[in-house]
């Protein structure tokens, strides 16, 4: 009873945050916060907040995922993103037993080099732009199946000569079954503010969101399913789409409801025939809807990947399609520092 009341109380607190005004579609600062930190997350649609595993990078989107399986493990991730943008994430975890599990991570995003010119087109030189964050996550197991977690994240961004500082935090609660076949979570992400602005006095908002996720390992088949519902604080993620006429029929209204609901969903599946190899595929409904071409959708919204476990060393790769002409590549190296190299 005590465990149930604790779970319900924390769930109500997180759900209550959904009343905050959401920021969708580029209307918030520090969009780097929404990038997938690891190759596994990128392969499964961009976010897997319920993936209970040994990769410290997974705690980036949900601090409640930090667990004893991550003890003394290092995760290095690099992504060749869109338009020559590059970003990476480094995470390390150390389990403290009954005192919980902290994870420390460092994230960077390099937008590349730009030509600086005056209003007449005269070349003055070049400049760069980049974002950085320090991620301090901590989880505590309330009992054998329930974990809570929090992240504190200082942010620094530089765009040419303009800089900005920010501070965000995440809070999550996770249920994890003892047989490792099911996990479910609720997370409130990017709660905070921009502390100093780039050039104007107006403070921009962070990309706050409430999300929920589950993953389930089939009992008699080597598949693990992941389903995540994002941006639950705001139902219509496309507020600028053409509204339905009052005379619209049942089918049109039902179709719009289904579309608006699926916009929140990211799904993925892993084929895990053993401990050596994993094959992954993910799909983001909103990404495909927004970025596919009308005449030819291609693989927009889909992502693919694979993982290889060699004991002390694990390798992951992800290919994510954002548009018919834009794909991203992410690679990851995970080291188990508890094992000696043989």
Give me the number of helical elements: 4
Helix content: 10-25%
Structural class: mainly beta
Strand content: over 45%
The averaged pLDDT comes out at 87
Encode the helix/strand succession as letters: HHEEEEEEEEEHEEHEEE
| Biggest beta sheet attributes | 14 strands, antiparallel, barrel
Order of strands, main sheet, comes to 1-2-3-4-5-6-7-8-9-10-11-12-13-14
User: What is the C-alpha radius of gyration, as a whole number of Å?
Assistant: 21 Å
Low-confidence stretches: 1-23
- Tell me, what's the shape? globular
Q: Say how many strands there are.
A: 14
Alpha-carbon distance between the termini? 48 Å
Structure description:
The protein has 342 residues and is mainly β. It has a domain at 2-238. It has helices at residues 2-16, 39-43, 250-262, 285-291; strands at residues 73-80, 86-93, 101-117, 123-141, 146-159, 162-176, 182-196, 209-217, 223-229, 265-271, 277-284, 302-309, 313-323, 326-336. It starts with a helix and ends in a 6-residue tail after the last strand. Mean pLDDT is 87; it is low at 1-23.
In short:
By secondary structure, this protein is mainly beta. The chain is 12% helix and 46% strand. The protein has a domain at 2-238.
């Amino acid at each position: 009873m005590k465990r149930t009341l604790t779970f319900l109380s924390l769930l109500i607190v997180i759900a209550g945050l959904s009343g905050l005004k959401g920021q969708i579609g580029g209307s918030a600062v520090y969009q780097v916060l929404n990038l997938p930190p690891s190759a596994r997350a990128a392969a499964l649609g961009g976010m897997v907040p319920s993936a209970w595993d040994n990769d410290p990078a997974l705690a980036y989107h949900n601090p409640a995922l930090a667990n004893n399986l991550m003890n003394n493990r290092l995760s290095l991730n690099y992504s060749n993103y869109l338009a020559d943008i590059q970003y990476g994430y480094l995470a390390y975890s150390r389990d403290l037993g009954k005192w919980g599990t902290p994870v420390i991570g460092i994230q960077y995003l390099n937008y590349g080099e730009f030509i600086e010119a005056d209003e007449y087109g005269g070349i003055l030189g070049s400049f760069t732009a980049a974002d950085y964050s320090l991620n301090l996550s901590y989880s505590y197991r309330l009992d054998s199946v329930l974990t809570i977690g929090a992240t504190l994240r200082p942010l620094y961004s530089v765009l040419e000569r303009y800089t900005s500082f920010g501070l965000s935090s995440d809070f999550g609660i996770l249920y994890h079954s003892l047989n490792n076949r099911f996990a479910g979570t609720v997370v409130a992400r990017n709660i905070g503010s921009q502390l100093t602005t780039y050039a104007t006095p107006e403070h921009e908002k962070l990309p706050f969101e409430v999300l929920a996720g589950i993953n389930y390992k089939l009992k008699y088949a080597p598949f693990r399913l992941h389903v995540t519902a994002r941006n639950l604080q705001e139902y219509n993620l496309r507020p600028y789409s053409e509204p339905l006429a009052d005379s619209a029929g049942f089918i049109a209204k039902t179709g719009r409801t289904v579309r608006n609901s699926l916009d929140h969903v990211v799904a993925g599946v892993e084929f895990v025939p053993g401990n050596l190899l994993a094959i992954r595929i993910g799909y983001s409904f909103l990404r495909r809807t927004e970025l596919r071409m009308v005449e030819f959708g291609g693989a927009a919204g889909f992502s693919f990947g694979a993982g290889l476990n060699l004991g002390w060393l694990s390798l992951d790769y992800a290919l994510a399609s954002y548009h018919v002409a834009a794909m991203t590549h992410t690679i990851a190296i995970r080291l188990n520092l508890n094992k000696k190299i043989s």
